[in-house]
Design a protein that fits this description.
Blueprint: H1 28-33, E1 40-47, E2 54-60, E3 70-71, H2 76-89, H3 121-125, H4 139-143, H5 148-153, H6 169-183, H7 187-195, E4 205-206, E5 220-222, H8 224-235, E6 239-240, E7 243-244, H9 248-254, E8 259-260, E9 267-268, E10 273-277, E11 280-287, E12 291-296, E13 305-311, H10 322-336
Antiparallel strand pairs: 1-2, 1-13, 3-5, 4-5, 6-7, 8-9, 9-10, 10-11, 11-12, 12-13
Length: 337
């Protein structure tokens, strides 16, 4: 496949969340141990304190810092999900149950499979569209097609909509196309307006398809601290900077189990994996190479917690065990925090 270059704009250090100068002593040994994870670039942690919360720790590795932009890969699917929830909250979209065919009418095949009329926004976000996946071995062919939206819609059905997970970046790219059309604006500008009020959040680079639509669910760059700010906003029920950024009801919907992950068997909602760590529930976004955003909702005895980890985006993390190493580190950090 042709290489597509993601421009990582140098990011100025952005004030995040009233960060203390040093991390809690209990976290320091673990952060030092994490240096042994060769692909790892940075870790940042946040904990709710009843106000805006605070950054507990932020550490860079192997020449990178928490303020170095990194391609967060498929962790950006959680960002696309957030934008969808905001669009629904603003009345630009009806609900997750809204059929996508009328929204993408101009790009439908000449003789579409009747099942295409049954695919909903929620099916796209939960990876249950039923269309042949355009990730994995099919990804290169898809991104080299002249029109990614039309290519995705013309893919054959391998199962009925709403059944098992069929992980595909093409699904979240269709969501990006829908958001672009209902807002009438480039999605990067929309994301800047809708998510920009989150203190410390900034997208520093994002690839586009041949029609200029920003790629939904991949090739998005931001710093580890920016990814943490996004997770912290979710941990606070969608609030940040004194505003309700993402509707709390949408977060609840996004964290409902819709299907099972083809990678781990864990639950999957609308752009979020659902599991347990350190004896508590965790919701997380995961991108190729080991780009992670973890959100631990508050419990009766424990405050909400968020953490972000970024790694080399050009190395696999699933088959190498790096993703599992990050999970184990996240679990230990959560227990220590």
């Amino acid at each position: 496949m042709k290489r597509r270059t993601l421009i990582l704009t140098a990011a100025a250090a952005l004030p995040l969340l009233a960060a203390p100068r040093t991390a809690q002593a209990s976290l320091q040994p673990l952060l030092a141990e994490a240096r042994g994870l060769a692909p790892l670039r940075a870790i940042a942690l946040w904990r709710d304190d009843g106000g805006q919360g605070s950054e507990l720790a932020a550490e860079g590795y192997h020449g990178f810092t928490p303020d170095s932009p990194t391609n967060i890969k498929s962790a950006s699917k959680s960002v696309v999900s957030a934008l969808t929830g905001i669009a629904i909250g603003q009345g630009l979209l009806e609900s997750a149950d809204q059929p996508i065919a009328p929204l993408l009418r101009a790009d439908l095949p000449a003789d579409p499979d009747p099942r295409l009329a049954r695919v909903t926004l929620g099916n796209l976000l939960s990876m249950q569209a039923g269309l042949e996946r355009q990730s994995g071995q099919n990804y290169g062919r898809w991104v080299n097609s002249p029109n990614w939206v039309r290519s995705a819609l013309a893919a054959p059905f391998t199962q009925d909509p709403g059944t098992r997970m069929q992980y595909s970046t093409a699904s979240t790219h269709l969501v990006a196309a829908i958001l672009t059309r209902v807002t009438g604006r480039p999605l990067l500008d929309v994301a800047g307006d809708w998510l920009g009020p989150i203190p410390g959040f900034r997208i520093t680079g994002w690839d586009r398809d041949p029609q200029g639509i920003y790629l939904g669910g991949n090739q998005m760059a931001m710093t580890t601290r920016s990814l943490l700010a996004f997770g912290a906003m979710y941990a606070r029920g969608g609030q940040a900077g004194g505003r309700q950024i993402v509707p709390e009801a949408w977060i609840a919907q996004s964290w409902q189990r819709r299907t099972s992950s083809i990678f781990s068997g864990q639950g999957y909602g609308y752009g979020w994996f659902l599991g347990q760590m350190a004896g508590r529930e965790v919701r997380y976004g995961w991108g190729y190479g080991g780009q992670m955003v973890y959100v631990f909702p508050a419990t009766r005895r424990q405050p909400a917690l968020a953490m972000a980890m970024t790694s080399d985006p050009d190395l696999p993390s699933g088959r190498t065990g790096h993703r599992d190493d990050l999970h184990r580190m996240a679990e230990r950090l959560a227990a220590a925090a």
